[in-house]
């Protein structure tokens, strides 16, 4: 099964000093039987080349794929041009990190606030993603935002942006059902054609998991299903529950396909 566990799922343990990125790899591989990494830059902790190459060696030794590298703190839009410039430099560092790690997909956020794009904002964000996608194309990965804060919470914005970027390796990290425009199902359906990776939170897991996964199944989605937990509490058990729910849906689909 193509499943990952987002590194952010263990941010509580990270804050307590009880896990690092190498412990994360051990955990997902041997506690949960997952052989693909879903790396959060907060857990990786560095963009220093020597450290990243050590991490890459560890991944290779474990024969683990990096399905996604999601980077916080380097979003594209800030009202202050100097802040945009700083974020651009950090985003480029994370893109280089993703290339070293062999990531298949990369998430960098739009930034902004929960409003429709203005023309300057759309133009700036579009050009940035086009540049990031051009870099990604040279290193074999997709690049795009996740619908989890700022401009990206509106499906209208996300659809407009996807059409504007127009790169074949532009790919959305779809946080299932996480929309603030009143149409969770519709938002997922509109983003399905551009979805390159997913994050499945506890709320959707407990309420409408198969419905939202089914939207992507109908669209022919072939990527990973990324379990992501957010509470920073009881993380090992909560992740195990969410993981089992996703596995259950996928097992049901496999049984149906087998007749």
Assign an overall shape.
Answer: globular
Termini separation comes to 18 Å
Unreliable sequence segments = none
The beta-strand count equals: 8
Describe the structure.
With about 260 residues, the protein is of the alpha/beta class. It contains eleven helices and eight strands. It has helices at about 10-15, 20-30, 40-45, 50-60, 80-100, 120-140, 155-165, 185-190, 200-205, 210-220, 235-255; strands at about 5, 35-40, 65-70, 105-110, 140-145, 170-175, 195-200, 225. The protein has a four-stranded parallel β-sheet. The protein has a two-stranded parallel ribbon with strand order 1-8. α5 (about 80-100) runs parallel beside α6 (about 120-140), α6 (about 120-140) packs across α7 (about 155-165) and α7 (about 155-165) packs parallel to α8. It is globular and about 50 Å long. The model has no long low-confidence stretch (mean pLDDT about 95).
List descriptors.
259 residues; alpha/beta; two-stranded parallel sheet; 11 helices
Please describe the topology of this protein.
Blueprint (H helix, E strand, L loop, with lengths): L2 E3 L5 H5 L5 H11 L4 E5 H4 L4 H14 L2 E7 L9 H21 L3 E4 L10 H21 L2 E3 L10 H11 L6 E4 L8 H8 L3 E5 L2 H6 L1 H10 L6 E3 L7 H23 L2
Helix pairs in contact: 5-6, 6-7, 7-8
């Amino acid at each position: 099964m193509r499943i990952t566990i987002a590194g952010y799922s263990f941010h509580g343990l990270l804050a307590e000093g009880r896990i690092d990125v190498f412990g994360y790899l051990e955990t997902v591989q041997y506690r949960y039987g997952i052989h693909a990494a879903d790396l959060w830059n907060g857990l990786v902790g560095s963009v220093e080349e020597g450290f990243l190459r050590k991490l890459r060696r560890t991944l290779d030794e474990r024969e683990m794929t990096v399905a996604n590298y999601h980077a916080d703190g380097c979003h594209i839009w800030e009202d202050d041009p100097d802040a945009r410039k700083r974020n651009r430099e950090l985003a480029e560092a994370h893109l280089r990190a993703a290339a070293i790690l062999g990531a298949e997909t990369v998430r960098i956020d739009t930034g902004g606030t929960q409003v429709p794009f203005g023309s300057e904002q759309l133009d700036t964000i579009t050009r940035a993603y086009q540049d990031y996608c051009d870099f990604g194309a040279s290193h074999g990965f997709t690049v795009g935002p996740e619908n989890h804060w700022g401009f990206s919470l509106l499906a209208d914005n996300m659809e407009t942006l996807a059409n504007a970027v127009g790169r074949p390796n532009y790919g959305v990290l779809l946080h299932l059902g996480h929309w603030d425009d009143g149409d969770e199902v519709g938002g997922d359906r509109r983003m399905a054609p551009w979805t390159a990776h997913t994050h499945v939170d506890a709320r959707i897991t407990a309420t409408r998991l198969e419905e939202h996964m089914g939207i992507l199944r109908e669209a022919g989605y072939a990527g990973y299903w990324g379990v992501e937990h957010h509470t920073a509490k009881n993380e090992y058990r909560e992740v195990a529950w969410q993981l089992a729910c996703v596995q259950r849906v996928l097992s049901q689909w496999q049984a149906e396909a087998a007749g």
